Amino acid sequence: MNLQQAKQGQLGVQRVPGYNLVDEPWLTVRPVGGGPPVKLGIAEVLARAHQFEGLVVEFPTQLPALLRQVLLPVVADATGAPRSLREKGERLTQEGGFTKDELDEKLLPYLGEHHASFDLFDPTAPFGQVAGLRTAKNETKGAAALVATAASGNNVPLFASRTDADPLDLTAAQAAHWLLHVHCWDTAAIKTGAVDDPQVKAGKTTGNPTGPLGQLGVIVPTGRTLYETLLLNLPVTPPDNLGVPQWKRGPHGPGWKPRAAEGLLDLWTWQARRIRLIPHRDEAGQPRVDRVVISAGDRLVPMSELEPHTAWTFTAPTKKSTSALPERRPRRHTQGKAAWRGLEALLAPSRQSTDGFETSILLDQISALQEDDQLPADYPLQVETFGMVYGTQSAVVEDVIHDAIPLPLLALHQDSGFHQLLLEVAEQAERLAQAVNNLSADLRRAAGADPIPWDKGQRPGELLLHALDPLVRRLLAGVRDAGTNEEVLDQGRLAWEQVAHRQAWDMADVLLLAAPASAFGGRTLDQPGKAGKTQTYRLGTAGANFRRQVSEILPRHTDAVRQAAAARAAETGPALDPAPGADFDY
């Protein structure tokens, strides 16, 4: 082998020991009740799923990849998806995780029957890969091409400590995680053309979309144990809608095509890329991966209606017709926005033909389970959200979105006070942030400056939302734990408004105290679009406007202050000074 061949990655494949994901310790799980994480294979993770809180991953977006590409399809194909809400509720609440019959007669025999299909380095049918995949020049790439956080080609993460020239040697477990991650989240744009792919032009394929999860705002409900999380993520669906996972479809060749998903299991195990891991032995004789081949894979067209892990947005039809229904599209998460700020979509009931939002199939079914008393109102449901932010024609990863919030089950019922409370709290937080931004803009105008543009710099309203974030999360957890206690609901609503009021005025005080002396006299400006109309901006009117807005946004706190002032006046006569906690009129 000459130096040029080595630089291009034209390396011979070493014979390495098998690495079967059913048995090898490639999944890291966190025990219930604490303790150090442990590493296990698929079989033992499922057999002891009730003993673990959940999976531990190196990178957040690996979690839905592991669930969808391996654990959920194994469980669904072996035991069947729930055929009714009652069956789902019974399976979800059974003690001890999977029953002995489910393990001995379904799951373990299934893994035994398909054991060979889970060998990561099988020479003829490696798991999730194409055996013998190669380019016309036998070129390969460094393993960094698999890793979303590593510099590779055009994908250079901000503040990355590595360069494309640095070799990245992955353990077999790491390679398996990132292999599945690529199938779900890979960047778009040009991919290296593979030999025997009839759609290759000039050694490349163009027009590749991102991985299917990159087009969604992924929503994963989680329970108290990994077992409960698996059942929460199995939608009620008839057997005809399941289809088969990728390991039962037969070995993939280098060719690919645009197609629709043929069932839920095909959707979950979608092969968005054709990949070959090139392993070698380390000094201890263990398999590692430092070179890969990645080319175009199947393109999901259209987005499947079976997709359970996203909320949906309805938009007006593009063609004006009385019979046309709104378009239903996956709702993606917004960069830099906490999950609770998107509650209007998480809590939206199922819809058929109206503008607005629709929650995920899974959350809708969880709501129905609680309504049928198969889950208690205080069940500690968590919702994790995942997303990928791509840049430059979706060819690079700019940011990763991940959040987790407690979600009260009663809030999933549209006609409940809990539902209205959470939507109201989210709206109040947004309106308070806007009020702070309005105050900032008025003070800047009064001082002779322009307001901060909405798309440039950091406006003070964002700082307020950051300060309110832990308060909203505490409220969500409190409402969830309260169950059906309406008294606690009322107390929580008032307590939220009191604390939100204090936080809003703390932020306003910073802006008011920083205003220059010229803001007292103010400045008179022409009103845009209104000939001959002017408006005077000064510190006093800016503070008064803010006080009025906050009082309108937080009516319960305002009423409580007024009632307390009236009670004191009845006892002692009218007070000259503002009552403690009342708004100060600047």
Describe the structure.
The strands form seven sheets. Strands 4, 5, 10 and 11 form a four-stranded antiparallel β-sheet that branches. Strands 2-1-3 form a three-stranded antiparallel β-sheet. It has 586 residues and is of the alpha+beta class. The N terminus and C terminus are likely disordered. The protein folds into two domains: 298 residues, no CATH class; 156 residues, Orthogonal Bundle (Topoisomerase I, Chain A, domain 4). The protein starts with a helix and ends in a 14-residue tail after the last helix. The longest helix is centred in the last third of the chain and has 30 residues. 36% of the residues lie in helices and 16% in strands. The protein has 16 helices and 19 strands. The radius of gyration is 28 Å and the shape is globular. Helix 12 packs antiparallel against helix 13.
